[in-house]
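Residues and backbone
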Amino acid sequence: MRVIVLGGDGFCGWPTSLHLSEAGHDVVIVDNLSRRNIDNELEAQSLTPISPMSVRLQAWQEVSGQSIQFLRFDIAQEYERLLDLMTSYQPDVIIHFAEQRAAPYSMKSAYHKRYTVNNNLNATNNVLCAVVDSGLDVHIVHLGTMGVYGYGTAGMKIPEGYLDIQVVTDNGNVVSKQILHPADPGSIYHMTKTQDQLFFYYYNKNDKVRITDLHQGVVWGTNTRETSLDERLINRFDYDGDYGTVLNRFLMQAAVDHPLTVHGTG
């Protein structure tokens, strides 16, 4: 298959790109390298050294014999470039990781809230518009988050995707409906993911775009089989207060004998 990985330089996008390339698929990475710039903003680097993109791609070609194409541009702002890529490359699948992914970062200031909303929502809508404009039958796979449902106890098993409900009308009749499970975002980042699923619902209903929206839990770990093949391919290990996931932070705090920073009820 021909696959475009949006956000392919990131924590999830990079190992996904290598895995798909190793499986024999033709892969194009699109990334604006914003995550690397945020490292500079926060003055907090990955614990594992991240090679420049050109070095990463050269290393992958050396160890696998496969090549991955890389295009640097911002899909949230450069719609025409995205559409041109769609029509010329004609992908079978688009994997969409191209969003600001840290809940703490999204809440730091008005700037960070606005940046997260503008980046994430424009990126998602542009991808969907480009699929429709191109006229191609492309399957979009999006990495969402279970955080769209909130992190409190629901008191029930949350159903996959849609919820079957019954509504009692004013005249006493009962009408059956299928709706998206109610959202309860806890941050601006999570709110953008709830908006994403409304975009997907609309474009699937209105334009028949094929979409898989994954609402996964915390992604943990550092390396995959492919990123372990060469030190130049190593993946990120973030442990700061904005991008460091709970497992990474706990590991680092335990290693230096620092009390674990448990928030809320843990």
Remarks:
- The chain has one domain: 2-151+182-255.
- The longest strand covers residues 162-168.
